[in-house]
């Protein structure tokens, strides 16, 4: 059974804070993704990673960075949180041997005040 | 034109009816197609995938793929109130590597 976990379900941060969102999968998946989801805008890809220390920008990388030091963990970093980064953040991964199907973690609802 | 398009709905059907959800895509070379269900406040859950033309059935769900017409559909038979959710279509476009392109989703409401 595919299991993707995220560090927090709900998070409230202040403007200007540095924010870390963590995603962990325990099945040796190579490909991992970070999305944000906003009403009316759908799912938008922020960054993805296809291996340890490898990362690629998605559609909206501005204001974000990522880290993948270990295969099971993919972190999203908001260097200086802003109110327009209030959103639902979703992590996903593709299983080994999979054919592009992505499995999502439970999501983190981030509010920046 | 968006690469993956869905009618946002809401699509309202009575309990026990067939719900038909449609998705069109722009890239004729797309190979893999996925349907996700997303309850309000929750993350998307993969419910079906289809790679070949035709129908694929899994319980009350049937995915239909027509590559010539560039559309993929999801049929839900004997709809239940618990099926009320937003359904996202996702496509692996040609030359997209491992990435999926998601439609905006169709909100389905099943009324008792």
Mean pLDDT of chain A: 93
Main pleated-sheet profile of chain A:
7 strands, mixed
List the uncertain runs of chain B: none
Proportion of residues in β-strands of chain B: over 45%
Approximately what portion of the residues of chain A adopt beta-strand conformation? over 45%
How would you characterize the overall build of this protein?
The complex is a heterodimer of chains A (113) and B (112). Chain A has 113 residues and is an all-beta fold. In chain A, 0% of the residues lie in helices and 57% in strands. The N and C termini of chain A lie far apart (37 Å). The relative contact order of chain B is 0.35. Chain B has strands spanning 4-5, 11-14, 19-25, 32-38, 45-50, 54-58, 61-66, 71-76, 85-92, 101-102, 106-111. In chain B, strands 2, 4, 5, 9, 10 and 11 form a 6-stranded mixed sheet that branches. Chain B has a 5-stranded antiparallel sheet with strand order 1-3-8-7-6, with no helix packed on it. Chain B is an all-beta fold and 112 residues long. At the A-B interface, strand 5 and strand 10 of A face strand 5 and strand 9 of B.
Write the layout of secondary structure elements.
The complex is a heterodimer of chains A (113) and B (112).
Chain A: E1 4-6, E2 10-13, E3 19-25, E4 31-38, E5 42-51, E6 54-57, E7 64-70, E8 73-78, E9 87-94, E10 103-104, E11 108-112
Parallel strand pairs in A: 2-11
Antiparallel strand pairs in A: 1-3, 3-8, 4-5, 4-9, 5-6, 7-8, 9-10, 9-11
Chain B: E1 4-5, E2 11-14, E3 19-25, E4 32-38, E5 45-50, E6 54-58, E7 61-66, E8 71-76, E9 85-92, E10 101-102, E11 106-111
Parallel strand pairs in B: 2-11
Antiparallel strand pairs in B: 1-3, 3-8, 4-5, 4-9, 6-7, 7-8, 9-10, 9-11
């Amino acid at each position: 059974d595919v299991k993707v976990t995220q560090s927090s379900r709900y998070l409230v941060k202040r403007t200007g804070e540095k924010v870390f969102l963590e995603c962990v999968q325990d099945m040796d998946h190579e490909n991992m993704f970070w999305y944000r989801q906003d009403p009316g805008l759908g799912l938008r890809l922020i960054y993805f990673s296809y291996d340890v220390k490898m990362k690629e920008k998605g559609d909206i990388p501005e204001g974000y960075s990522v880290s993948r030091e270990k295969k099971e963990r993919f972190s999203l970093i908001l260097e200086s949180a802003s109110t327009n980064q209030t959103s639902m953040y979703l992590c996903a991964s593709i299983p080994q041997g999979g054919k592009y199907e992505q499995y999502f973690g439970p999501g983190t609802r981030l509010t920046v005040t | 034109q968006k690469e993956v398009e869905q009618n946002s709905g809401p699509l309202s059907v009575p309990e026990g009816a067939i719900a038909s959800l449609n998705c069109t895509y722009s890239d004729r070379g797309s190979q893999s197609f996925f349907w996700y269900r997303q309850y309000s406040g929750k993350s998307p859950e993969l419910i079906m995938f289809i790679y070949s033309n035709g129908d694929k059935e899994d319980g009350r769900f049937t995915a239909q793929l027509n590559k010539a017409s560039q559309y993929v559909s999801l049929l839900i038979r004997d709809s239940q109130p618990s099926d009320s959710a937003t359904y996202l279509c996702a496509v692996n476009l040609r030359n997209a590597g491992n990435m999926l392109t998601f439609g905006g989703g169709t909100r389905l409401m099943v009324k008792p």
